[in-house]
Amino acid sequence: MTMALVILGMGLCSFLPRYLPLVLLADREMPETVKSLLGHTPPAVLAALVVPAMLTPEGHGLHVALDNPYLVGGLVTFVAGLISKKFLLVSAIGIAAFYLSRWLLG
After folding, report:
1. Which residue of 12, 39, 96, 105 is surrounded by the most CB atoms within 10 Å?
2. How many CB atoms lie within 10 A of CB 63?
3. Residue 99, C-beta contacts closer than 8 angstroms, at least 6 positions apart
4. Are the CB atoms for 54 and 70 separated by under 8 Å?
5. Distance of CA 84 to CAs 39, 76, 93, Å?
6. What is the DSSP string of 59-76?
7. Which residue ranges make up each domain of the chain?
8. What Å distances lie between residue 101 and 20, 41, 58, 70, 71, CA to CA?
9. Residue 106: is its pLDDT beyond 80?
10. pTM attached to this predicted model
11. Which DSSP symbol is given to 56?
């Protein structure tokens, strides 16, 4: 019974913060500033997830050098993304850069 209450409570804690703004703010128009800022949320979240993995590949200690294949792959992917907006092409270039730098560095 305790486990069922914990699961129900965690479900509510996860569901309510997502659902309540939809219900409470459904009839309101968001200001343009808010809309503009919300447009930057996905890249910011992606950067927050990817950059620490690139800079600390072993999970501890900052490793900012060209012998870090994660950093090389990330930088090449970033540059390829600026040049080409094609997701699959940019992803393939980044993966190739990662594995090539990993192979060259041993």
Report:
1. 96
2. 14
3. 69, 73
4. yes
5. 20, 12, 11
6. SSS---STT-HHHHHHHH
7. 31-105
8. 47, 31, 16, 9, 10
9. no
10. 0.66
11. -
